[in-house]
Amino acid sequence: MLDLDGTSLTQQENKLLLNQHVGGVILFARNISSRNQVQELCKEIRQINPGLLIAVDQEGGRVQRLKEGYTNLPSMQKLASFLNSDIDKNIPFATDLGWLMASEVIASGLDISFAPVLDLDDSRSSVIGDRSIGDNPERVIVIASAFIEGMNQAGMQATGKHFPGHGGIFADSHIAFSQDTRSLSDIESHDLLPFSALKAQLGAIMTAHISFTNIDKEIATFSTFWLQEILRKKIGFTGIILSDDLSMKGSDHVGGIEAKVSKALDSGCNMVLICNDRPAAIEAINFLEKEKISQSHKITRLKASQSISWTDLEKNSRRKDIISKLNIIEK
Fold first, then answer.
1. Which residues belong to the active site?
2. Following DSSP, what letter does each residue of 166-227 receive, concatenated?
3. CATH architecture of 2-330
4. pLDDT tens string 266-295
């Protein structure tokens, strides 16, 4: 999965998207200027290669790429604060919000938002923080399950991230090699609980570029222990495994992009993300070509299973009710 330079496709991108080793596109804020423009860009992409998965990070709060013309979504921690005030009464709102987020993304022509964040955190991590639902695994499971149910109602598969958990340390794996020194029993009794409990609801899981040094020296993205022994065998997850962005500094210790792609695929990732580094993406494509590696056909199960137009969505009474309630919560 690779990214794009701007709000429309370049000639180079037209060619890249036809390559058999490219399975998807992720949109960032620089690719988005308006709702109509996003729809046109997605239409462009599908005209060139209808099999591609089109993704975005639309979590809510500070990680919301689609803004102008879209509902302003609360952070997951802010949502949880509201829900926890009366969880039994309020939990259906998590389902509503999951449906709304997914519906707006799908109506724009995309397939998937990489959500929800299942990292357990309240304030430890510099990069997770309020992106997390919270630090209580049981409460996170209840809220995330309801949110995923709403996503599924809209026709979107859910992606749990970042396995096996990024919320236990301050360091940001975008900019540095990150280590968590806790034991396996500590991780299993805390961070792994949401991934395990929600495995049947998740279409995909995204890895963390974290090294749990007292368990396995490799970061989870490059670890057969974490992805094969724990995620596949012990937890029993059968969906798609996505690497986090391999251009992040947290994955640099193994060498260049060829080494990163090779280790991620060997460890068990079905798709690797390479963003904000076009030369590296091209180098990765050439490597996959040389090694005759292609797994992108497996990713089609993550494509949106139904569609909705913006015209119908704007008339939808459920959306109107959710937005009204959000306005009350914000106040």
1. 174, 244
2. STT-S--TTTS-EE----HHHHHTTTHHHHHHTTTTEEEEEEP-EE-TTT-SSBGGG-HIII
3. Alpha-Beta Barrel (3.20)
4. 999 999 999 999 999 999 999 999 988 876
